[in-house]
Amino acid sequence: MSIALETVRAGFARRFGGPASIVARAPGRVNLIGEHTDYNHGFVLPMALDLEVMIAGQARTDNRVRAFAEQFNDGADLPLDGLTREAAHPWMDYIAGVAQQLTQGGYRLPQGADLYITGDVPVGAGLSSSAAVEMAVLKLFEGLYGFTLDDGEAARLGQRVENEFLGISSGIMDQFASRCCRAGHALFLDCRSLALEHVAINFADAALVITDTCCARRLSGSKYNERVAECERAVAGLCEMLGKRGGGGDPQSAPWRGQETGHNRETGHNGETDHNKGTHLRDFSLAALEEARDRLDTVAFRRARHVISENGRTLEACARLRDGDAPGFGALMNASDHSLREDYEVTSPELDAMTAIARLLPGCYGSRMTGAGFGGCAVHLVQTEHIKQFSIRLMEDYQLATGIEGRLYSSGASAGAEWAKV
Of residues 93, 174, 250, 397, which has the active-site annotation? Predict the structure, then answer.
């Protein structure tokens, strides 16, 4: 826990004049590999961070939600029977969206609530502060009102908040990571079946370093939706080439099925599902994409090439993680970053400077942008003995190259969302 429980309790009492009855927390996440694959029904490999959002709460009796966000020094007050987006308080949209989705799903919030929100997940850095808020407030409502969603349902609810309430065509990775991750592990998730595996991070001589370009992400909802539409254009062209939906098969599930270590030890699910309808880029191989090149515009082709190859890299990276193969994992990180820069075009000059500098420093196995892109953070795999000097040199050289003072985050792999009575 990165924020003291007493700090959150005291903040609630100061703001609302009485004690909270419950505190919930949910972490941010860093995605180790598997970028822009989740909304294409592919594979991802995130881990939860020690950085987190914490919310203290108490039930009300007047059917209203009053909330105060310490990070923004801002408060908002909404009726539960009239939840809308708040232009003056955009952070409140995530809370209102969760409450709306719960109500639509038949879960009662009978009295409303007072909420005090604080946290240290940086906003706009690509570490998923929004999903952390969604999953923290959902956990708080569960504890406050005595219902429980299963993890998959909770993650899907958070995704609907962004898709339906906010109008952003995002995938499910961020919410799943914030809700479900296990301390000391990365989460290997099949974003189609929601089969998962907790994979221990146990490199013998290497650790992960997260750095912030300190350039807020410039990926607006429209840019994100643009990438989604480009992937859909690629799917349409592939289906036209094949003459029917489903001719692409599900090539990415074959290596998942073929690896015993890929089996989900908790649910028994091995990823083998009947999804041969060619609806997403997950359903096609690089060979099929090459065959369809003449039917696709150049942009759609490159977007598809990134997604299909990134799925393969993520499967391979999971195997390298299980084996503790740091050089192999790092090489896949580098290949992912190249693909995100050249084919998916979601890096930025600052991210490119950060990763290029990192790869030249002693002890760096691999470096890549992480998150949606267009600014934000990068993640690096570095030999343990070089981490101190690597971190110093990277921050110095990045500032020399860009004129911007970057930031370093130290975090292990944390546990997912939880709540407790206070």
Answer: 174
